[in-house]
Amino acid sequence: MSYGKATAYLPVIDLLKSYFQIVPQDDARRRREQVTGKLLTLDRALEPMLPALLALLEVPVEDPQWQAFDPPQRRRRTLEAIKHLLLRESQVQPLCLVCEDLHWIDTETQALLDSLVESLPTARLLLLVNYRPEYQHGWGSKTYYTQLRLDPLPPASADELLQALLGHDPSLAPLTPLLIARTQGNPFFLEESVHTLVETGVLRGARGAYRLAQPLESLQVPATVLAVLAARIDRLPAEEKRLLQTAAVIGTEVPGRCYRPLPMRPRRPCTAAWHTCKPPSFSTKPICFRSVRTPSSTP
To answer: CA 204 → CA 30, 117, 217, distances in Å?
Structure first.
């Protein structure tokens, strides 16, 4: 996540929850059972790693030795526990560990990857990562490191992609170079631009068999992918837009129970000095968004 740098081990925690089959509804006892059972089944020699993994998954740890560790010791034990777990699992079956968007990585996960990279030659583990050009790492000199650079599509390849998406209708001839120039060969941008033109009625037909339904002079192709997605949200019906906006406050993944209709409750006056009350579309319970004034009276 773009905000992941502020949360230690964020992608690692997601990985461990998936590995131990932990779901949001699991309480501390259930999490402890899941982690302990699978870890000891894998290898009882990993039992000393248990406190570090439990602590990482927000399960209370009563082990006196763990409680006596200072923060640097806990950090070292946590990194060792995750690394040993992955390496031991790779002895049971080959693993492919995927970590995306390293340009947003937190320092603890970076430390784990740096340590894990050193052990890759002797493990049945493929580490697959992707990142933007600004991200820097020290793996380039490793003989077992291979980089596959993904550059924007050259004009010929972009044209081929558009032909597959649009088709070969003569009316499309002036549209293709316009899209290639605007998207600069970004394949995702190309696809989303085509979707936008279809949704707005500029293109008519089916995938691979479209035709231009409006004059080229009237076309407005968004300048960025963000603008494309924002325009798509703006075209949603009002109720769906409010639902999407409210869900976005909760997070990227919203539990289904949050959408369950709740009984209407009467609004009550809010005693906050400064407030705005608005019911979210997935619930009829009013939510009060409050802000406070600073001593200088600046909101």
So the answer is: 53, 51, 17
